[in-house]
Amino acid sequence: MRIIDPHVHVWINDPAFPWPAETTDPPEDRTAEQLLELMDTNGVEKTVLVQPIFFRWDNSYAAHCIKKYPDRFMAVGRINPEDPAAPDHLQMWKEEHDIHGQRLSPARDGADDWFSGPLMEPIFARAEQLQVPMLILTGPQRLPDLARILERHPDLDCCIDHMADAHSDNPEERKLLMEMARFERVYVKISHTWSISQGGYPWSDTYDMVEEVYQTFGPQRIMWGTDWPVCLSKAEYPQTLSVVRDEMKFIAPEDLEWIMGKTVLKLWSFGEA
Q: pTM above the 0.70 mark?
């Protein structure tokens, strides 16, 4: 079974990749080389690098990593969602640096913010035109806003990160997430069980919701993910892998192949036909 991780973050303290003014207290290095060691130790073949907010809209380090290790990494960037030039930036990062995807992080409880404003239409239209997937990090309350956008862009792949961090004991949040299954090109990462759980590994109090996502979206529209190194506050890298591969017994073996790798390849091909 191929194991491909669709969600990690890397960064480095290096003058070649300067921190933006907003990052006043840079975190310690979490480099591509550190990640590769973890991947090799745990049998992870390839990984999608997701631009960390620390670097804001400069995706240069991610671009550097995928150029240096093209057989191991692809990357998702960030653009400033409040900049009218954001669609052009999306296109530049795609065409000049092969950044295949962009991530937006609307406030979980925001009202009348940029996500419901006029700048989203040109961003999503350009992504659809270029076939660049959009990743959304937000809470369930914002999924209706996302739905209104996606209704106008049926040919765009969109991934809801971390099950929108819906709480497994909140029926309304779960309903908002499951309603997104009506969009055929919406995917869900069943990551962050370690974050939303009230217990320790293997975070089994989240399984009921994960199984509902599995049954609602189907294995070809869901994927796992480590979210390294963010996970380290509550989970080690191997645990974020084993919880899905070894502990979620409700997932059929043939479906696990999709969730652990084949679904990821639908959005990030890594140069494969």
A: yes
Q: Which helix (H) or strand (E) holds 73?
A: strand 73-76
Letter for the amino acid at 82?
Answer: E
Half-sphere exposure of 265 (CA within 13 A, CB side): 16
Which range marks the domain in which residue 11 is found?
Answer: 4-267
- Rounded to 10 degrees, the C-alpha dihedral 136/138/143/146 comes to -40
Q: Coil, helix or strand for 115?
A: helix
The pLDDT of residue 110 = 73
6, 48 Cβ separation under 8 angstroms? yes
Q: Per-residue pLDDT tens for 6-16? A: 999 999 999 99
Residue 31: other Cβ atoms inside 10 A: 15
Residues 6+ apart with CB under 8 A from 189: 6, 7, 159, 160, 161, 162, 163, 222, 223, 224, 225
State how far the Cα of 80 lies from the Cα of 67, in Å rounded to an integer. Answer: 23
Query: For the chain, how many structural domains are there in total?
Result: 1
30 is a domain residue: yes
Contacts of 180 (CB under 8 A, 6+ apart): 143, 146, 147, 160, 186, 188
- The residues, any chain, with a CB within 8 Å of residue 114's CB and separated by 6 or more, are 81, 82, 106, 120
Which tens digit of pLDDT belongs to each residue from 22-51? 999 999 999 999 999 999 999 999 999 999
